[in-house]
């Protein structure tokens, strides 16, 4: 009987801890302008805006990352850019379920598993996927484990070869991000995506426009950085002077 009571007490304590860790996400209000300071690898942020966990046109990828690790904050300009770009994408892909991955902590600074993302001007986006030419959301639902997914040089998921990256959708999204960014006083500073997948990205109709757009893609990456940027694409924004 005492063991049962102890288990319930531990469970209650864990749930209480989770509640207190996540309370700021429930009470946060987006208002005013964000100040992003320093560099993406050594920076901070004041008056950050919080992404909705489930927005009108997108959903954040992990409740653990969102509510416990507080990794869904960003600069207000980037917040508006994402909202506007996903609205455009939903017009082109009305049934698509888009997923945003990690952005930044409420005050910026160091994040778990990320060396950058410290000023609220960096965002990870989950690669859109198709399976037998249809939208494939199954592997989008595994939360932070998504970072462990591996794709082969043709963009096929290693553990499920019938699932592959939708390069056309991805290219179109980056173009809409640039379009929306300019409306918010931003521009794309750099895109990080696995180097051996860029050719397939640029072969698509929107990929050809993307290649001609002048948006900079990192050309040389450290092996470990290159290896982990196949399941998502990282975008750094900068404030236009």
Question: What is the topology?
Answer:
Elements: H1 2-27, E1 35-39, E2 42-46, E3 49-50, E4 58-60, H2 63-68, E5 73-74, H3 76-92, E6 98-100, E7 122-126, E8 129-131, E9 134-135, E10 156-157, E11 160-165, H4 167-183, E12 186-192, H5 198-203, H6 205-212, H7 223-228, E13 232-239
Parallel strand pairs: 4-6
Antiparallel strand pairs: 1-2, 3-5, 7-13, 8-9, 8-11, 10-11, 12-13
Helix pairs in contact: 3-4, 4-6
Q: What is this entry, summarized?
A:
The protein is an alpha+beta fold and 241 residues long. 36% of the residues lie in helices and 22% in strands.
Tell me what you see in this structure.
The protein has 241 residues and is of the alpha+beta class. The chain has a single domain, classed as Muramoyl-pentapeptide Carboxypeptidase, domain 2 (2-Layer Sandwich), CATH 3.30.1380.10. Helix content is 36%, strand content 22%. It has 7 helices and 13 strands. Strand 8 (129-131) and strand 9 form a beta hairpin. The longest helix has 26 residues, at 2-27. It starts with a helix and ends with a strand.
Number of strands: 13
CATH topology: Muramoyl-pentapeptide Carboxypeptidase, domain 2
State the share of residues found in helices, binned by percent.
25-40%
Oligomeric status: single chain
Distance between the termini: 67 Å
Low-pLDDT regions: 7-20
What class do helices, strands and sheet pairing give? alpha+beta
The main sheet comes to: 4 strands, antiparallel
Portion of residues in beta strands equals: 15-25%
CATH class: Alpha Beta
- What overall form do the CA principal axes indicate? globular
Strand order, largest beta sheet:
9-8-11-10
The average pLDDT is 91
What is the CATH-assigned architecture? Answer: 2-Layer Sandwich
Specify the number of helices: 7
- Along the chain, the helix and strand elements come as HEEEEHEHEEEEEEHEHHHE
Number of domains: 1
How big is the Rg? 19 Å
